Amino acid sequence: MDSTTSRDRFAELLDAAAQVSEQGELHGLLESLIDIAMGLTGARYGALGVVGSHGFLVDFIHRGVDAETAQEIGHLPLGLGVLGTITRGESVRTGDIADHPDSAGFPEKHPPMDAFLGVPLRTRNEVFGNIYLANKPSGFTSDDQATIETLSIIAGSAVANVRIHRRLRDAAVAEDRARIARDVHDDIIQDLFAVGLSLQSLADSMGEPDERDVVRTQVARVDDCITSLRQFIFNLRQPTSHTRDLEIEIDELVEELAEPYSADVEVAVDAMVDGFGNDLADAVLHIIKEATSNALRHSGSPLVRVLVTGGFNNLSVSVIDHGRGFDVAADHAGMGLANLQQRAGDVGGDLAVQSSSSGTTVTLVLPVV
After folding, report:
1. Which helix (H) or strand (E) holds 264?
2. What's the pTM value of the predicted model, to 2 decimals?
3. Which residue range forms the structural domain that includes residue 8?
């Protein structure tokens, strides 16, 4: 690739970064980043992983692997092996990934990969993701590494900008909610309270019982209105994310399910899950309950993992065991697979079940709007 083309691609990325930062749309920037990284280096395969606070990959954008193969591979990488080395902030460049001392191998159905370049994505001192490139015919050079590290700096700056804008918007929303609550209390409720007192005085002064009853009925309606407005103010003053604490509900559910069994159950929640509506939250809990119960009852696995991860566009719920597995295509009465599919479909999600002699993974992916 000549230097003119490289300069053009850098200019395109800078323009895209500026536009995305202004719009607050991050996923598109990350997709552009991996596409441009592949174009600049000549890599056949490319991917970008977003890392959550638990160290797991919570989103994974890939190029070069078709959808059918990706489905056969199964759940997202967990960020182990060489990928974990990059997550710790170290670039990796090797002629054959299998020769790297941290290599953990590939899952079944994964295409073969040799030459590899991995670069961490940072915002200041925080690693928020990684770029992975593989299978450049002539191998990756030191210039390739320097180029991709430069791209990672651009991406980190754009991500930092987006996060700042989001925080400012959230702060503005919170300030607006507090102002509205204050205005409702200071103006509307006080006025209604004064009206109620006046009506009560009027009722007390009336001689006819029927007239007093009519006015007192209206006083009661004013009181009900004040009560409703006070509840409205209370709700306004609560953080919007406190609709339900789904993370606590998941922990309590899994603890209850695991109690009768000797297997260990690990839970990792790396997503904003406390602002969901009841339908979505209930679907997540139901699928975790069914899949975890199945794993505990049938798999024989000493460890079951429940991972709830959130990317920019979706929420992923995975229940993973390392037991005996089963034939997914066969009829498994009592395991509730059809019910799980129905639950996922009801909330616009996709459910995938992969099983082999080395274990089973049930993954629900839900769109987050």
Report:
1. strand 264-270
2. 0.49
3. 3-167
Give dist(CA 133, CA 127) in Å, integer: 18
The single residue listed with the structure tokens 């990959």 is 57
Quick check: helix, strand or coil at residue 194?
Answer: helix
Q: Where are the alpha helices (DSSP H) in the chain?
A: 3-23, 27-41, 67-73, 81-87, 142-183, 190-205, 209-237, 246-258, 278-294, 337-346
The tokens of 144 are what? 């390739």
Q: Are 11 and 154 contained in the same domain?
A: yes
Domain boundary (111, 135, 167) is at 167
Contacts of 53 (CB under 8 A, 6+ apart): 270
Q: Is 328 found in the same domain as 346?
A: yes
CATH number at 67 reads 3.30.450.40
Tens digits of residue pLDDT in 200-254? 777 778 878 887 788 878 777 777 676 667 667 666 665 554 446 778 888 878 8
- Structure confidence by residue, pLDDT tens digits, 171-197: 677 777 777 777 777 767 777 767 777
Q: How many beta carbons lie within 10 A of that of residue 160, not counting itself?
A: 16
Question: Do 151 and 45 have their domain in common?
Answer: yes
CA angle 15, 120, 123 (to 5 degrees): 60
